[in-house]
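Side project, low priority. Logging it here so it doesn't get lost.
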Amino acid sequence: MQRLPGCTDEEWALRCQLAECYHLVDYMGWTETIFNHISARLPGPAHHYLVNPFGLNYTEVTPANLLKVDLDGHKLEDSPYDGNPAGFALHAAIHAARSDVQCVIHTHTTPLSAVVQKQAGFDYNSFYGAQLYGRVGYHSFEGITLFAEEKERMVASLGDKHILVLRNHGIAVAEGSIARTFFLLWTVQRAAEIQCAAGALPGPDTPLPEAIKTRCMELTAMLIREDDFANKFFNAMVRKMHAERGPSW
């Protein structure tokens, strides 16, 4: 695919990786038809970011058709597409407030939606759940996230964490690179799947001691701070997807 005119090497590489991330989320079965959104912040002080054109399937996203928008959701380059208004409040709020975050992924798969509907949220007692201990913020449901007035409250709910539970809705995960964010999403998804499966079985769960949950969280956080680890995981998943589906575009 030909690079967009005037696009720097750095931006084009980010566009390619973000487009692959969209295809991976579809490949994993985590899409919600044309809804939900993944964003990646571009380098620079303006906090401009890339996001999907609304109305396209995730498999139709390419490096070239990703939208470049500002924190108000205004397009910064010509495009026949518009963004999803429901995504701007969430993504803009996090990108504006958290300089350590480059990528935000919002999903509401069935297991995740089930867990975040429960008052207790994540229980942290599985192998994957323990890795999330102390890393989750909770935000009360205020309806579809369309309005700027909710931004401050969402940011406050997230705090310095990297997983935001949108109660009765879904989740947003945010990390310092696309690969790290995708790995975190995979971990959260697995935790939700196992929690739902365990909840369907009779008998009490075996609770993990707080010290063990804390240690699991710290070790996982240490691993994903290493971009090499996250990139290996991301690139392996891209290769697997391409082996089964062919090139993404």
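Brief comment: The helical segments are 9-27, 85-97, 110-117, 127-130, 151-158, 178-199, 210-224, 227-245.
Revisit when time allows.
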